[in-house]
Design goal:
- It is a single chain.
- This protein is an alpha+beta fold.
- The chain folds into 2 domains: 71 residues; 78 residues, PH-domain like, CATH 2.30.29.
- The longest helix is centred in the middle third of the chain and has 32 residues.
């Protein structure tokens, strides 16, 4: 079983760990701010007592610390497990923290290859490659912009080798 999910040739670099963490912390900060604002409004409008608010604050901070710990651990594990290979036959992506998956994408089912640059990863010089196939969309995550065009060209060149001629 370990042989099936072995690491592939290309892994995420250490700098991408920072980008993943920032991307995960932003929604946490927004949700925390919303929850805190709602409870602050409830205490100001006298809908809940100060004692209940103190209990809420304790639970709120403990839950946030647990979520932050989970994000830190999960991103470390994700970076260690996630890898991909671009071979002559297709693309292999190994990922998954709790549920491991290995995806093989043969070139003959690839319809298009696009580049996605979200606001956070763009700021740090990363991009994602979105591969559209006959059945689904698959992404190769956190590729340095210096390597982006080379990897995209390699995929498109290999895809063109498998074009059907009528």
């Amino acid at each position: 079983m370990k042989e099936i999910f072995k690491k592939q040739n290309i892994e995420l670099d250490k700098e991408s760990l920072k980008v993943i963490r920032i991307g995960n912390f932003i929604p946490l900060a927004v949700y925390s701010l919303i929850i805190f604002s709602v409870f602050t409004y409830l205490i100001i409008s006298n809908k809940i007592s100060v004692i209940n608010f103190k209990n809420f604050l304790i639970i709120y901070f403990v839950l946030n610390l647990l979520i932050i710990a989970y994000i830190l651990i999960e991103t470390n594990v994700f970076c260690k497990i996630y890898s991909y290979t671009i071979s002559n036959e297709g693309i292999i992506i190994v990922s998954g923290v709790f549920i491991k998956s290995k995806i093989f994408i043969p070139y003959n089912i690839i319809q298009s290859v696009d580049i996605n640059k979200g606001p956070i990863i763009r700021k740090f010089g990363y991009s994602n490659i979105d591969i559209k196939t006959l059945k689904e969309n698959i992404e190769i995550y956190y590729i340095k912009n210096e390597n982006l065009e080379k990897i995209k060209e390699q995929i498109l060149n290999n895809k063109n080798l498998y074009k059907l001629k009528y």
